[in-house]
């Protein structure tokens, strides 16, 4: 019960953040009767046949969220992911070993936008339709209405919001690359973590990846977020790199050799090898000389102790 209440508290904080910082390219909200089931709508990227598309889907959060990843599935036909099937990404329940508690709903949706134009190549829940087929899906998706929540894609993400999705991807503070199954998620930083009373122990989450061979990489920059609640006052701020003065390392001083006059013969170095026997003999000779010196001193002292009688 406590884990579920922690998940609900975290999700309420994320919902407040999405409401206070709305995006023209994505939206998400829980169902009225189930806080752990959210429905989302994202705008398709401009390439890969997804231009102008709106795609609706479902996110199922576990009771121990954010310590375990959610399961994500699309409800709108799109030509990239199967409808109603849990997709296989490093931000979903298929790969809990890659999940980081600092990730949230917003970061997952931004990752989905980035993965749409990439090849599926046999991953779970992935499709590889042609661009003309995806373009037809994108055209139909604008008027698609969800039978569960009743939201229409055109109403949720209207045509007036013509901001390119690439700008959103460049502002969300995520970095992700797709890796093959078995590869560890690379270490990289994102800024899309939310502060709340539910413990977030990893302030620098690793990078979301898809379980397919490496086919693309997208670099994203951070967008500051407002505080989520009074108990969750930590806001997401972009990483600011302070300018640093680079001081060149001191070069070692190498003595310069005097030039040899023309026609002069360079001096030859004579190497005298010393073996252990020679060194030992020198030590013995030194000791013997010292002993002889001591004996001579004792003899002189002895002779001086006798009184001299007159002749």
Features of this protein?
311 residues, alpha+beta, four-stranded antiparallel sheet, two-stranded antiparallel sheet, 6 helices, 6 strands, elongated, UBC, UBQ-conjugating_enzyme/RWD, UBC core domain-containing protein, Ub_conjugating_enzyme
Any overview of this molecule?
This is UBC core domain-containing protein. The structure is a single chain. The protein has one domain: Ubiquitin Conjugating Enzyme (Roll), CATH 3.10.110. 26% of the residues lie in helices and 11% in strands. The protein has helices spanning 2-20, 105-115, 131-141, 153-156, 165-169, 276-305; strands at residues 26-31, 34-43, 54-60, 71-74, 175-177, 217-219. Strands 1-2-3-4 form a four-stranded antiparallel β-sheet. A two-stranded antiparallel ribbon has the order 5-6. The longest helix is centred in the C-terminal third of the chain and has 30 residues, at 276-305. It is elongated, with a radius of gyration of 38 Å.
- Identify the strand order in the major beta sheet: 1-2-3-4
- The N- and C-terminal alpha carbons lie at a distance of 124 Å
Q: How many distinct helices?
A: 6
The proportion of residues forming helix, as a percent range, comes to 25-40%
Count of the separate structural domains = 1
CATH architecture verdict: Roll
Strand content: 5-15%
Count every beta strand, where a strand is a DSSP E run of 2 or more residues. Answer: 6
Bulk shape: elongated
């Amino acid at each position: 019960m406590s884990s579920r209440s922690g998940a609900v508290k975290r999700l309420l904080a994320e919902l407040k953040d999405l409401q206070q910082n709305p995006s023209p390219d994505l939206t998400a909200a829980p169902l009225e009767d189930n806080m752990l089931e959210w429905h989302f709508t994202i705008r398709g990227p401009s390439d890969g046949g997804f231009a102008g598309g709106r795609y609706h889907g479902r996110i199922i959060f576990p009771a121990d969220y954010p310590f375990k990843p959610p399961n994500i599935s699309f409800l709108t036909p799109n030509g990239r992911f199967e409808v109603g099937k849990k997709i296989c990404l490093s931000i979903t329940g298929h790969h809990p070993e890659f999940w980081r508690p600092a990730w949230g709903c917003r970061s997952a949706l931004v990752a989905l936008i980035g993965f749409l134009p990439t090849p599926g190549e046999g991953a779970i829940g992935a499709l590889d339709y042609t661009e003309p087929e995806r373009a037809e899906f994108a055209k139909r998706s604008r008027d698609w209405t969800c039978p569960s929540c009743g939201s229409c894609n055109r109403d949720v993400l209207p045509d007036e919001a013509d901001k390119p999705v690439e700008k959103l991807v460049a502002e969300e503070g995520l970095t992700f690359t797709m890796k093959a199954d078995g590869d560890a998620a690379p270490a990289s930083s994102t800024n899309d973590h939310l502060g709340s009373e539910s413990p977030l122990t990893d302030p620098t989450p690793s990078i979301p990846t898809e379980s397919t061979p490496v086919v693309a990489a997208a670099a994203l920059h951070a967008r500051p977020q407002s505080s989520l609640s009074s108990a969750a006052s930590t806001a997401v701020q972009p990483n600011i790199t302070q300018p640093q003065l680079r001081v060149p390392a001191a070069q070692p001083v190498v003595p310069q050799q005097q030039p040899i006059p023309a026609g002069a013969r360079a001096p030859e170095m004579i190497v005298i090898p010393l073996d252990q026997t020679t060194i030992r003999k020198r030590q013995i000779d030194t000791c013997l000389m010292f002993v002889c010196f001591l004996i001579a001193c004792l003899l002189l002292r002895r002779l001086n102790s006798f009184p001299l009688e007159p002749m």
